[in-house]
Each structure stands twice: as C-alpha cells, then as structure tokens.
Automatic annotation (TrEMBL):
Catalyzes the reversible isomerization of glucose-6-phosphate to fructose-6-phosphate. GO terms for biological process: gluconeogenesis; glucose 6-phosphate metabolic process; glycolytic process. It comes from Roseobacter ponti. This is Glucose-6-phosphate isomerase. It catalyses: alpha-D-glucose 6-phosphate = beta-D-fructose 6-phosphate. It comes from the Bacteria. One of its GO terms (molecular function) is monosaccharide binding. Its main location: cytoplasm. It is found in: Cytoplasm. CDD domains: SIS_PGI_1, SIS_PGI_2. It is an enzyme of class 5 (isomerase). Belongs to the GPI family.
Length: 532
C-alpha cells in the first residue's frame, strides 16, 4: 500500500501545477469525470482528478482489496472482526434478492417476516386514534429516521412524528408539552436497550403517559436486538420489532429502527425507500470501478482527505428538507472511519476519515461559505440538488435554488483573480494604493474542489439511493484505510467516565482522584446549584 500512497502523493504535486478550471480545456471532461446510475448523476469533474490520478486511485482500491471485501460483506462474513459480527444492513433492503447467509443460515425469512410485521403495525397505527408518535433513541437510533421523516415530508400522511434523543430534560419536556398522552405512541428505539440517554427518556415518557391518562402497556413499542430487556421494560412481544447484531446502529434505518418513517409515509413509500437502497447495492456490486458511484465518491474523498490533506469536507444539500443530512452523515462517516489503527492493530498509514459537516443551501451561503471561499484552508464541498421541487406553484424558487447551487461550485473553481478584482475596483472609482488594498480583499483564489450529486426529485426511492451511496462510500474508504468501519470503541471512554462522575455530581461521592480542572468544575456547580 505504501507504494500506492507515495505514487498518489507525487501525482498530487503535479496536479497542483494546473488549475481545475484549465482541465476543462480538454473536451469531454465533464462526461469523462462523472457517472450515472439510474437517474442519478455524480459529477466529480470540478476536482483536480485527471485520468492518471483516477487510475492510481483505482489501483489503490484494488490493492486494498475493495472488490473482495465488498463481496465478503454481502456474503455475510464477519468483517466487523473486533466484535466478531457480519455487516448486513444490505439484507434489510434485499426485498427480492434471494438468500443471505450468516453462519450457514439464510437470514432473509426472518428479515422479511419482521418487515411484514412492521407493515401491519404501521397500518394499524395509521388507522388508529394515534395522532403523534414519539421516537426515543439516540445516535443511529435517531439521526436516520429523524432525517428521513423530514426529507420525505411531501409523502408524510401518517401521524405527526417527534424525535427525542438528548438526555437533557429540556428535549423530552419540550417535546411532550402539548401532546395528548391518550393519543401518543412512544417508540423506544435502541439496539442495545441499555443506552442511558434513551432509557432515561423512556422512563420519563412512561411516567408522563401514566400521569396524563395514557396507557403505556398499550402505547409503547420497542425496536431492539435485546428482547429480554424490552420485556423487562414491560413492552409486550407483539410490539417489539427485533433485529440482529449484524445491523450496525448507524446503518439501521432500513429495518425496525425505520418504523417511525414507515408510520409517517406508509409501508408502500417505505418499500420504495428500500428499493432505492437495493438499487444502489446492485450498482455497487456490478459496476466497474471506473463507473461505480460509491467507489468514485470514496476515491474522491480519499484524494481530498488523505492525499491532498484537506481535513474536513462539507456536505451541502440544496434542499431544505435535507437539512439533517449533514448530521446523519457525520455519524455515518466519523463514527465509522475515525479510527487510529488498522485491522491488525497497527497505526493507520495515513490520516483517518475527515471531519464531516455542513448545512442546507442556500442558508449556509449566508453563514459559513465566506471561509470556504476565502479562508486559508481548502474545504472540498459535496453539493446535492434535485431537478425538481415538490412545490409546482413555487417553481421559480426552485430555479433560484438550482442557480445558487451551480453558482457556488463554479465560484469555488473559478475564483476571481487580482486583475479582475482591480478592474472591479477601478470601475468604482478607486485608484493607487487604496485600489490595490480594496482589490486584495475581493480576490478569490478559486481552484477549490467540489462534487455534485443531482437527481430528478427527492422521493423515497431517491433518498434510499443517496443513503446507500454514502454507506458504501464510507465502506470503500474504510477498506482503503485498512480500518474496521463497523465498530466504535472511541465512544466508550466518555461513557465510562460519565458513569463514574454521576455520583460525584450528585454529591454522594467525593471528587477524589479527579484532575484539578474537573474537581473545580464540580465544586463550582455544587456551589451554584439551586437547593433541591
Ligand atoms: O441504539 P443504541 O444501542 O441505543 O445505541 C445508540 C448509539 O449509541 C452509541 O453511543 C453508539 O456510538 C452509536 O453507534 C449508537 O447508534
């Protein structure tokens, strides 16, 4: 692998001698550096990647064993080897794809039976007196469904959905205020059913329901792998939707964790979402790397983060309803690929995954794009735009949205030279030193890379394609980095310390053994706390 990384570094040196804009002097660049699957287009031509770089990146992916590991994943091998688990979220959307074997057993009958139970339950709730659904979960048991319910609001014809994640009592208090306990369904979503935030919120919701005339025995459902714990909590088996440990939390919205989405948009639209994911799986398995959208998206990411050294990437959906997508991708990418060692326990050879962040366009333009355009660090951008909105009466809004999205990627690439800036200031009447000073503030270096994903309409099928595209992108990047993208040991230490600090904060244990800063903060909080 070291040879491949070295070769890419040398290519990056050469690439810095040509501007991205100048690459378009070669006819056909946009066609050659874009790929399509179904009706979705991924354009990576506004990057410094040229044919030789793409070949080298594909060779890197080949050397890392991406094709073999991809098949191992789909074949149910225990590729999450620090936890000894298979990785089969793809089975959850394998609606008609045949058997999927785990340890010699076909898991599809179980997956399809649970899906059918979910459909029955969703129909029952949609036809009942339930007006509001509260999904209590955190991380992978919250971000995906919360994002999808908002993304698919034009298809939302079921009860209202609310999402409570934070252990901060403000979250559940604000959410329950105004809800009718007699017509609310609470879904406790937790793979492990031990997560302290979720279990604390679930108990609070149960007490609220009892106190306000609802019936927790009839109005609670659970989504979990731990049926013993859901039973202990008092949720009857017919309202428990289980899944297996081969579904990672941040990959779980395709199965029971997506129940709130199914209740919101109905089983048929949820099926379309699954089919979008399945279509992307098929493309990912079948397409040559040169045309493979998840592979090319991953290679673009590797080029920018690990080869060119850009430490973050911005996800910029020009779609108000996708405003939670950056948060969702943050967990998907950063929890998966923020790792210090390779599979064999030795340090990673290059930087691990980048910081992923972003916001919906055009809002971000009026907040942080200044830094993206003129800050000293390069931030590769990932734009998303639909050809159509869901508001035919407001088509002029959508034209403006598209124009803004395309304008940003063009501006990032093209920039504005010092001469252009001087000319601009000259026409405004500036001269001499003041002209020069004013002009410098208006220079955009340009040559800033971006990619754009475009599709006809953000419908359930398309959302399924987008989510699966990014899941596979993360997988490919993880394989190239040599890491396990499916564990998350890095979240453990903070949890353990929170458990040990709880009695200290409550005042039932001394702050002994804690560092001076922590002890002082505890003392300050104790002094300032209102008496109970
Ligand atoms: O679904 P749960 O078991 O409650 O887990 C919820 C979340 O908690 C953990 O801290 C993990 O880092 C996440 O990957 C997970 O999604």
């Amino acid at each position: 692998m070291t040879d491949h990384w070295n070769a890419l570094e040398a290519l990056a040196q050469n690439a810095s001698e040509h501007s991205i804009l100048s690459l378009f002097d070669t006819p056909g660049r946009a066609e050659e550096f874009s790929t399509q699957t179904g009706d979705m287009l991924f354009d990576y031509s506004k990057t410094s990647i040229v044919a030789g770089i793409r070949d080298a990146l594909i060779a890197l992916a080949g050397a890392a064993g991406v094709a073999e590991k991809r098949e191992a994943m789909f074949a149910g091998e225990a590729i999450n080897d620090t936890e000894g688990r298979a990785v089969l979220h793809t089975a959850l959307r394998n609606l008609d794809g045949g058997p999927v074997m785990v340890a010699g057993e076909d898991v599809m009958p179980g997956v399809l039976a649970t899906l059918e139970r979910m459909r029955g339950f969703a129909r029952e709730i949609r036809n009942s007196k339930i007006t509001d659904v509260v999904n209590i979960g955190i991380g992978g048991s919250d971000l995906g469904p919360a994002m999808a319910v908002e993304a698919l609001s034009p298809y939302h014809d079921g009860p209202r959905c609310h999402f409570v994640s934070n252990v901060d009592g403000a979250h559940i208090a604000d959410t329950l205020r105004g809800l009718d306990a007699k017509t609310t369904l609470v879904i406790v979503a937790s793979k492990t059913f031990t997560t302290i935030e979720t279990m604390t919120n679930a108990r609070t919701a149960r007490a609220w329901m009892t106190d306000h005339g609802g019936d927790p025995a009839a109005q609670f459902a659970a989504l979990s792998t731990a049926d013993d714990l859901t039973a202990d909590f008092g949720i009857p088996a017919e309202r428990v939707f289980g899944f297996e440990d081969w579904v990672g939390g941040r990959y779980s919205m395709w199965g029971p964790i997506g129940l709130s989405v199914m209740i919101a948009i109905g089983p048929d639209a949820f099926d379309a979402f699954l089919r979008g994911g399945q279509a992307m799986d098929r493309h990912f398995r079948a397409a040559a790397f040169e045309e493979n959208m998840p592979v090319l998206l991953a290679l673009t990411g590797i080029w920018h983060a690990q080869v060119c050294g850009h430490a973050s990437r911005a996800v910029l959906p020009y779609d108000q309803r996708l405003k939670k997508l950056p948060d969702y991708f943050q967990q998907l990418e950063m929890e998966s690929n923020g790792k210090r060692v390779q599979m064999d326990g030795t340090p990673v050879l290059v930087d691990s995954g980048p910081v992923v962040w972003g916001a919906a366009g055009t809002n971000g333009q009026h907040a942080f794009y200044q830094l993206i355009h003129q800050g000293t660090r390069v931030i590769p951008c990932e734009f998303m735009i639909a050809a159509n909105g869901h508001e035919p009466d407001l088509a002029h809004h959508h034209q403006l949205l598209i124009a803004n999205c395309l304008a940003q990627s063009e501006a990032l690439m093209r920039g504005r030279s010092a001469d252009e800036a001087r000319e601009k200031m000259r026409t405004k009447g500036f001269t001499g030193d003041e002209l020069e000073r004013q002009a410098q503030h208006r220079v955009f270096e340009g040559n800033r890379p971006s990619v754009t994903l475009s599709y006809p309409l953000l419908d359930p099928f398309t959302l399924g394609q987008i989510v699966a595209l990014y899941e596979h992108r993360v997988f490919v990047e993880g394989v190239i980095l040599g890491i396990n993208s499916f564990d998350q040991w890095g979240v453990e230490l903070g949890k353990e310390l929170a458990t040990s600090l709880q009695p200290v904060v409550e005042g039932t244990a001394p702050a002994e053994g804690k560092d001076g800063s922590t002890a002082r903060l505890v003392a300050f909080i104790h002094r300032n706390r209102d008496p109970a």
